[in-house]
Amino acid sequence: MAQRFDAIIIGAGHNGLVCAAYLARAGLRPLVLERREIVGGAAVTEEIAPGFRASIFSYLMSILHPRIQADLDLRRHGLEVMPCSDMISPLDGDDYILFSDNVARTQASFARFDSRDAAIYPEFDRYLTDTANIFRRLLWETPFDPTRRDWRAFRQMAGFAMRHRRYAGKLFRVADMLTMSAYDFLSEWFRDERIKAVLAYYASIGTFAGPKTPGSAYVIMHHVMGENAGAGGWGFIRGGMGAITQALAASAREKGAEIRTNSPVAEVIVENGRARGVLTQAGERFEAPRVIANASAKTLFLDLVGERHLPDDFVRDVRNIRTFSTAFKMNIAAERPPQYRCLDRIRRDGALGSWDYPTYVHIAPDIDYLERAYDEAKYGRPSSSPFITPVVPTIVDRSLAPEGKHVVNLFGGHAPHTLRDGDWATEKPRFEKTVLDTMDRFAPGFSSDVIASQLLLPQDIERIVALPQGHIFQGELALDQLFFQRPVPHWADYRTPVRGLYLCGASCHPGGGVSGIPGHNAAREVLRDARRRSGMGYAAA
Ligand SMILES: Cc1cc2nc3c(=O)[nH]c(=O)nc-3n(C[C@H](O)[C@H](O)[C@H](O)COP(=O)(O)OP(=O)(O)OC[C@H]3O[C@@H](n4cnc5c(N)ncnc54)[C@H](O)[C@@H]3O)c2cc1C
User: Are residues 121 and 216 in the same domain?
Assistant: First the structure.
């Protein structure tokens, strides 16, 4: 017999859990069904070797919003954020550039390369912060459909224009961020290619683009929008990224949400154009007046709902969501953290703030390095010199590895989901060597300190966490896939062509990253409809 709930959420990624927690707080009884054996989606901590625990996918907290942390009482449920305020970019030889939250320290570092670039940096920092503030305000919006011509749409657009009218004068800078390449944008400010590479690096993170690709400037913005402590708002989480989703699950459960793992959903039950519930792969039937997918838009519509319930042009738009990924992750159990060539010099210079070791590093010494890594992927080959973000959480959190040992997370690009020639079954060991050789170039001997390693290519990420083509954001962050076009045009308000069926994950505005905002905004729209439908007084999210 079917079991009944007020809402069913497909997937216990962090956004599904945020959505569940807000719905439960508002008085609904949600059920969350997760296909994996653990909650968390791409925000999990798992053992990679005996005694070594790693954030196997996402590795640093960037944009988990303070409002969500406070609303859901995450600190009481165990969330502890440790600031990550300095980033080091090693150069060839023993040189390096520091990029820090502290403007004066960044400026001093830039001054060693170009005094004019250093002089202008504070103005650039103010410009970026000011522009980030515009985008930050949009995070909480439910995107409207600008093509609709009815009164409700007109009211929504007018309301939007009123709320953001103070920023109208800054329209051109928004247009710049959305359309320019990271390189062109940064070249309006800086001269030195190494300094530009420090800032352009963010544009390539999780994105199939190079710093010279039009539109890549926005991805820099997406990565500096965080409002937490740390460079651009970044932070380590005690216990790894899984501690965020454990805290979210505890918060949701405390208010009455039920969460079941090992429960893959096989089908959304649709009758007369309305979602009625779900069937799991094990054949269980759960019913609810609303079904909300944290699973990606492609998974929901193409696998779980089925084309027969959807308009043809909508299905075409869903198929066309660009999810082709080139991002890889390598989790390493190591004897020692990487011993960068520049380490002695960094220490001599007293360049580091909180720790005596650069916990957060970008390997991409100049713009050409980033662009060449992309060029190879563009033609279907893995990068022969990938850009890499090595992060060593065990410097700040000893709970993750045995005494004296370390966990090293390497995130980078590009390793195309599908190769033009050959396949990953044969190429994977070769690419693993390429990654370690690249590390050895900047941190000699690192490869011989590896105790165990886990290389996750886009196909592995797709298999483990059900992200189509392994895309870390459930879809590219590009102008044609943002705001009222995310996940697809006309359906960006978390609702779908099936009544009672919603999306709440990174496929929706404002996109990927561990922010919780899609989950929050979706809960708000679900509650709005619930109030309209039943007149019940559910509290607002
Ligand atoms: C390798 C990697 C590195 C990253 N690094 C960072 C980082 O450092 N910082 C950062 O902020 N962001 C990072 N990200 C991005 C960020 O982790 C994601 O954008 C974010 O976690 C997405 O959360 P979500 O809840 O929307 O979806 P997901 O985390 O994708 O969760 C969706 C959930 O739905 C479940 N599911 C799917 N289909 C079904 C089904 N049929 N039945 C039941 N359950 C189902 C999945 O198993 C999964 O648990 C990274 C991502 C990856 C993959």
Answer: yes
pLDDT at 415: 98
SS3 499: strand
195, 120: one domain: yes
Domain shared by 205 and 268, yes or no = no
- Distance of alpha carbon 342 from alpha carbon 75, whole angstroms: 37
For residue 413, what pLDDT is reported? 95
Ligand 1 centroid to residue 42 C-alpha, Å? 3
Residue 539 lies in a domain: no
Alpha-carbon separation of residue 491 from 19, 213, 385, 487, 517 (angstroms): 19, 27, 40, 7, 17
For ligand 1, atom 1, which residue shows the shortest CA distance? 57
Q: Classify residue 500 by burial, with Cβ atoms within 10 Å: 0-12, 13-18, 19+.
A: buried
Of 32, 294, 300, 362, the one to substitute when testing ligand 1's pocket (max ligand atoms within 8 A of C-beta) is: 294
Q: How far is the CA of 119 from the centre of ligand 1 (A)?
A: 40
Q: Are 530 and 292 in contact (CB under 8 A)?
A: no
Q: What is the C-alpha to C-alpha distance for residues 213 and 116, in angstroms, rounded to an integer?
A: 26
CB-based contact 36:232 (threshold 8 Å):
no
Q: Given 3-state DSSP classes, what are the helix, strand and coil percentages for the chain, each rounded to the nearest 5?
A: 40, 20, 40
Residue 526: give the domain boundaries: 3-81+241-321+473-534
**Which residue's CA is the closest to the ligand 1 atom numbered 29?**
41
The closest-lying atom of ligand 1 relative to the alpha carbon of residue 461 is 53
pLDDT of residue 495: 98
Q: Kindly list the averaged pLDDT for each block of 10 residues, start to end, along the chain of length 541.
A: 93 98 98 98 98 97 89 96 89 93 92 97 91 88 93 91 87 88 96 94 89 90 63 80 98 98 98 97 98 98 97 98 97 98 93 85 96 97 98 96 98 97 95 98 98 98 97 94 96 98 98 96 97 67 59
Assess whether 145 and 92 both reside in one domain: yes
The reported pLDDT for the residue numbered 435 is 98
Last residue of a domain, one of 465, 482, 506: 465
Domain count, the chain: 3
Gap from CA of 191 to ligand 1 centroid (Å): 37
| pLDDT given for residue 290 in this prediction | 98
Q: What atom in ligand 1 is closest to the CA of residue 507?
A: 26
Pocket of ligand 1 (CB under 6 A): 10-16, 33-36, 41-43, 57-60, 62-63, 264-265, 294-295, 299, 304, 327, 329, 411, 461, 465-467, 472-473, 505-506, 512-514
β strands within 34-73, DSSP E: 45-49, 52-55
**203 and 277 housed in the same domain:** no
Residue whose token pair is 């000893």: 398
Q: What is the structure's pLDDT at 231?
A: 45
Q: How far is the CA of 43 from the centre of ligand 1 (A)?
A: 6
